[in-house]
Amino acid sequence: MLNIKITKLPKSEIEIEGEIPAETFEQFFDNALKRISENAEMDGFRKGKVPENILLSKIPEIQILEEAAELALAEHYPKIIEDQGLDVISRPEIAITKLARNNPLGFKIKTSTVPEVKLPDYKSLAKKTKDTLTDKEKEVVVTEEDIENTIMDIRKSRAPKKHVTEATQTSDIEGSQMSDVKELPEWNDEFVKSLGDFADMADFRKKLEDNLRLEKENLVREKTRLKIIEKIIEESEIDVPEILVELEIDKILYRMEADITQMGLKFEDYLKHLNKTVEELRTEFRNDGEKRAKLALVLNEISKAEKLLADEEEVAKEVAHILEHYKDADPERARLHSQNILTNEKIFQFLENL
Hints:
By secondary structure, the chain is of the alpha+beta class.
């Protein structure tokens, strides 16, 4: 039986201090010696064939003890975690505090655990937050200006470029400049038919208006959801582990690098253009990383409390869709991503419909 003391630290970290009894630790000495002998090389012997008595005379005892300590903790650490009912989420930082033959092995282990999340009355908060929305915030109106601006953007995007020469006022043709001018295509039935399944201009305008209204409805919904969840997070008690913040920052940087690469640029060149290092970016994204970590923890806690989980059939469909469009995607990661997205959607629907 190990003598264990657990101390809670800030940021949901813990320190496990204890000793492995001398007689238990001694059992790992021979195994450590055998492990060292497997890779030992000495003159006159083949690799891994050096007799143990010779090894003992040539290798410092402390080296064998360090190997024995590694083996002992590799076996006992998982047992400690299980026996103490700890839900750890990071690799342990191990420090040996006592190391000698025929003595207990003393150690200190620091690691992070899943934090306790104390939720407020999130149902009441969700209702109150919705009630505070003004009519203007909830308003969904598609104006003629919205439609005309979108039509103009479409015409510009489909306009062929035409090179023209413009002479300056102070010089002749030798000082002229070349510029690109877009000739807008004529707005008629023939043009809208080339854009997709549209009968005529009137049909296009009607479908465009419907799409713009849907976009605005989605925007209002997203803003409402954001207000609700921000209020819940604000009133929740969470001691966010450092490792979760760092993981979220990793995700932000990974997405940024992927976007830059997709544009045909090198991430290193982009950093030079910004005159920043990766570490400086990590510092800048720290607040965002902490917000994302809190969001994930709060949503997970609400999911458990309300037993809200993604439908497996919907998850399977989403995974199939991802794998169809991204052939190199890892199926398991795609499943976890889909499950997370669909579960979160259920949670937000639950909160906004209270």
